[in-house]
């Protein structure tokens, strides 16, 4: 509704510059004319920005006061200023780029600096979230957003957190904007930590006031078998110091992360220097040869941990839960899943200081990209990321790290505000992150509880697997093709073993997350959790086939019963002994019946095996016979193929010869036909000549006898010598005959 924001005062200028959206300011003097040069172009650029992105990711403002314009380095009327929080702010270069609405918008879009980004998935298939998650760890903040509201206090607090988080060089302009966002001076928070527990001796005060922090050792550390709480202090000298109460001044979490890292590396050299239940030791820093740390470790009971805070009940449970299972395998009260990542401080909120948080994005290799989503429109995404569906206030924060395959959520019981958000980001950025990875599981089990195989989910893992009797757990997934083939084996195993002391369970790891220490690297996988020794779980050998006899041997080998408790002073009564004997006899008879069934099944399988082997031997003999016949037929086929090739070659040769003979005969036939034609014509000519000659002879018969006697006539067809000349009258006659013949033809 307002493409241009009028900025008349310094307060409103600070409001404009401290906004999380990038801002473009234009300075125009309206004293000379109602429309100063360049104003309509600047207004058109604001409209052009709304046309390209109606959500208004780039804000445009106008300054008319020259003194106010000098604060943002604008001197000449018509100048345009692009504000950037952490990089150098820019002035539109009118000498290089043409002063047009399109160029102003492109210049602002290309050089803008994004502090927070709104994500608005359109509801269909989209790679919007995937493309943003590929850039690195992402902080998603779901907040209710009203675009018509005059102010957004929660967004102002988030903007303040983002400015402090990215203020690496402690820029004075950013500090001034932060002071404007706070409106008042930052409040001084008193320590929320309680006093020292009763019963522990009060140590002497530390003159150097070293920074200390209380940490809970994870269960997998070797020292945690005897001590589960340590206080780490930074010490500049080599003398052992005793930390004071828990409210001792604390150092930055980066220093404590380095101390914790060095403590884990030097844990083997830890030695006892104080009597009682507290152990103290000095150890050299792994990063600096001139820095020492002091660690004092002690055992904190469940009752004392309850005084320190309800949040530590879950993290203390791994060190205490297994010891409580040494007495009984019955289901205890509900508790969280033990987690090796639970090493957070007892009072994380006591270590929140703005000096440690300022510029944190440049001091860690897990820099966060901050995104905002409207919870009124996209709360479904928040629910899928772990937000409660029945939340009264739709505010939710989560960190998703695709590279580490994990994501963390801010405790829904805590309000989304500046302090909690800074603490959440700090705990994620620390080297040994105290955040607990959020686990997502399926809503309900596939099988009810009365079935032989218990279906385990993320919520029931602790109750079923870690607090019950001996448990054999099968890890499977819906896409695993080999896993369904094992169902009948586990059903038979569940029928053989007593249900009151043994549980056969399975879990779909494609739908249920577990802590990393309980995950497997291949499917299917079988883990056995023995009673009273849950920390000594055993993996079924990968090279051993998963069959019923092998599973029975595996379970019996690793489920040795615990030693019987010492007998009480009161001897057992006869009725008790008799009932125990009857119970044992019942177990023995049950096992004998099962053994007889197994033997009957084994004998039936052996008979079936013999029949199958006989059929296999007969099939092998038939196979050999058929193979020999096949080889003989192949040889005969080869000979026939060779003979066929020879006959084919001979056939082609004879065919060529016959074609040649036929061609010659055809030529002879053609020549004979031509000769016959010529012979016929010759005969006709000869007969014609003979008739003519006879006619001439008859015509010349009355000639004088002297001439007749002087020249006798030649007989017809008599040969004539070459060079002889016929009589003159004969030549004339022949000439006349030829002319007559030609005329006749």
UniProtKB/TrEMBL annotation:
SUPFAM superfamilies: Thioredoxin-like (SSF52833)
InterPro entries on file: Thioredoxin-like_sf, Thioredoxin_dom-contain_11, Thioredoxin_domain, TXNDC11_thioredoxin
Domain Thioredoxin: from-to ranges: 410-560
PROSITE patterns: THIOREDOXIN_2 (PS51352)
Coiled-coil zones: 588-678
UniProtKB keywords: Coiled coil
The UniProt record lists the keyword Transit peptide: no
Biased composition annotated in UniProt, kind: Polar residues: 726-737
Gene3D superfamilies: Glutaredoxin (3.40.30.10)
Record flagged with keyword Hydrolase: no
Cited CDD domains: PDI_a_PDI_a'_C, PDI_b_family
Region annotated Disordered, chain positions: 693-745
Protein name as catalogued: Thioredoxin domain-containing protein 11 isoform X3
UniProt source species: Equus przewalskii (Przewalski's horse)
Taxonomic lineage from the root: Eukaryota, Metazoa, Chordata, Craniata, Vertebrata
């Amino acid at each position: 509704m307002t493409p241009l924001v009028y900025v008349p005062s310094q307060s409103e200028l600070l409001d404009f510059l401290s906004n999380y959206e990038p801002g473009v300011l234009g300075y125009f003097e309206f004293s000379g004319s109602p429309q100063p040069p360049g104003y309509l172009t600047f207004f058109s650029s604001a409209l052009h920005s709304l046309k390209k992105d109606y959500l208004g990711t780039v804000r445009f403002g106008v300054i008319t006061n020259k003194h106010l314009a000098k604060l943002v380095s604008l001197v000449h009327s018509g100048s345009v200023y692009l504000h950037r929080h952490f990089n150098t702010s820019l002035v539109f270069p009118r000498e290089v780029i043409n002063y047009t609405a399109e160029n102003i918008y492109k210049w602002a879009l290309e050089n803008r600096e994004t502090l927070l980004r709104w994500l608005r998935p359109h509801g269909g298939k989209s790679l919007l979230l995937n493309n943003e998650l590929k850039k690195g760890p992402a902080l998603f903040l779901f907040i209710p957003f009203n675009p018509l509201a005059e102010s957004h206090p929660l967004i102002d607090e988030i903007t303040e957190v983002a400015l402090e988080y990215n203020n690496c060089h402690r820029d004075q302009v950013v500090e001034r904007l932060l002071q404007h966002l706070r409106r008042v001076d930052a409040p001084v928070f008193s320590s929320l930590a309680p006093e020292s527990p009763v019963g522990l001796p009060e140590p002497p005060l530390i003159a150097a006031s070293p920074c200390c922090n209380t940490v809970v050792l994870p269960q997998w550390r070797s020292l945690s078998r005897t001590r589960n709480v340590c206080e780490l202090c930074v010490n500049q000298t080599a003398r052992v110091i005793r930390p004071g109460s828990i409210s001792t001044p604390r150092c930055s979490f980066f220093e404590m992360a380095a101390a914790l890292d060095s403590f884990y590396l030097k844990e083997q050299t830890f030695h006892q220097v104080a009597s009682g239940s507290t152990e103290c030791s000095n150890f050299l820093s792994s990063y600096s040869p001139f820095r020492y740390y002091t660690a004092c470790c002690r055992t904190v009971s469940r009752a004392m941990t309850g005084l320190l805070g309800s949040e530590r009940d879950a993290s203390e449970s791994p060190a205490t839960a297994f010891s409580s299972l040494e007495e009984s395998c019955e289901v205890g009260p509900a508790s969280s899943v033990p987690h090796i990542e639970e090493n957070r401080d007892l009072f994380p909120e006591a270590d929140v200081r703005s000096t440690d948080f300022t510029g944190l994005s440049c001091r860690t290799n897990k820099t966060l990209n901050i995104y905002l989503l409207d919870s009124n429109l996209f709360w479904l995404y928040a629910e899928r990321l772990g937000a409660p569906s029945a939340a009264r206030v739709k505010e939710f924060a989560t960190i998703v790290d695709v590279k580490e395959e994990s994501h963390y959520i801010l405790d829904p019981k805590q309000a989304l505000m500046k302090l909690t958000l800074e603490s959440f980001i700090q705990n994620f950025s620390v080297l040994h992150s105290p955040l607990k990875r959020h686990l997502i599981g399926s809503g309900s089990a596939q099988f009810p509880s009365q079935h032989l195989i218990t279906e385990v989910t993320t919520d029931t893992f602790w109750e079923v697997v870690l607090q019950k009797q001996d448990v054999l757990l099968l890890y499977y997934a819906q896409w695993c093709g080999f896993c369904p083939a094992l169902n009948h084996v586990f059903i038979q195993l569940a029928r053989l073993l007593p249900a009151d002391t043994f549980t056969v369970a399975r879990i779909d790891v494609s739908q249920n997350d577990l802590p990393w220490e309980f995950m497997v690297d291949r499917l299917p996988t079988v883990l056995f959790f023995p009673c009273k020794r849950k920390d000594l779980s055993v993996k079924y050998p990968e090279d051993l086939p998963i069959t019923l006899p092998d599973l029975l041997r595996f379970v019996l080998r690793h489920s040795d019963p615990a030693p019987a408790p010492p007998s009480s002073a009161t001897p057992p009564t006869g009725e008790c002994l008799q009932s125990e004997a009857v119970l044992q006899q019942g177990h023995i008879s049950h096992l004998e019946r099962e053994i007889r069934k197994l033997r009957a099944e084994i004998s039936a399988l052996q008979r079936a095996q013999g029949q199958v082997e006989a059929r296999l031997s007969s099939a092998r003999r038939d196979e050999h016979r058929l193979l020999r016949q096949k080889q003989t037929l192949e040889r005969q086929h080869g000979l026939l193929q060779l003979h066929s090739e020879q006959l084919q070659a001979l056939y082609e040769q004879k065919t060529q010869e016959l074609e040649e003979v036929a061609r010659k005969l055809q030529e002879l036939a053609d020549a004979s036909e031509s000769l016959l034609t010529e012979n016929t014509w010759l005969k006709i000519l000869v007969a014609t000549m003979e008739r003519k000659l006879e006619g001439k002879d008859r015509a010349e018969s009355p000639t004088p006898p002297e001439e007749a006697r002087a020249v006798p006539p030649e007989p017809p067809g008599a040969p004539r010598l070459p060079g002889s000349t016929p009589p003159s009258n004969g030549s004339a006659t022949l000439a006349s005959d030829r002319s007559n013949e030609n005329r006749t033809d």
